[in-house]
Amino acid sequence: MNAMAAGRAGHARTTRGEERGTGSSPVAAIIVVVCGAAFWTLVLAGWIASAQHARQTADLAALAGAHAHKQGEQACQAAGEYARRNGGELADCSVSTGTGEYIIHVEVAVDLRPALPGAPTAVREKAHAGFLIPDEEPGSGENGRDASGAGGP
C-alpha cells in the first residue's frame, strides 16, 4: 500500500507541475483589458471636461462682450480677454445690433486634453449674449429678457 500511495503522490505532483502557470495567460489578458478600459475612461473623462470648459469659457466671453458693449466698449476685445483668462482662445466674434438691441456672438477654442496623436487638438463652442426687445406689446406676452435669461429693463 505504501508503494501504491507513493505512486499516487508522485502522479499528483506531476499533474500539479504540468498545470503550473496555466492561469497566467487569462490573468494577463484580464489585466490588459482592465488597464485599457481605465485608459479610455480617463481619456473620455478628460475630453468631456475639456468640452465643458469650452462651453463655460464661451459663455463667460459672450457675457463679458455684452457687458462691454453695454458700457460702450469694444465687445470682441473684452470677449477675447475673458477667453484668454479662462484658458481659451477667441476663434470668432461678431456683434449684431438693432434699435436698442444687441447680441454678441462668440466662438471659443479650448485645447482638448489629453492630447492623443491623430485626435482633434481643440474643442470649439459658441455662445451668444446681449439684450433683445420683445416683439409683443407690454403685458401681452413674456417680459423682455436678455439672451442670458435675465430680465430686461
Automatic annotation (TrEMBL):
Keywords: ATP-binding, Helicase, Hydrolase, Membrane, Nucleotide-binding, Transmembrane, Transmembrane helix. InterPro entries: Rv3654c-like. The chain crosses the membrane at residues 27-49. The keyword Methyltransferase does not apply. Residues 1-22, 130-153 are annotated as: Disordered. It comes from the Bacteria. GO terms for molecular function: helicase activity. The keyword Nucleotide-binding applies. NCBIfam families: tadE_like_DECH. This is TadE_like_DECH: helicase/secretion neighborhood TadE-like protein. It comes from Propionibacterium ruminifibrarum.
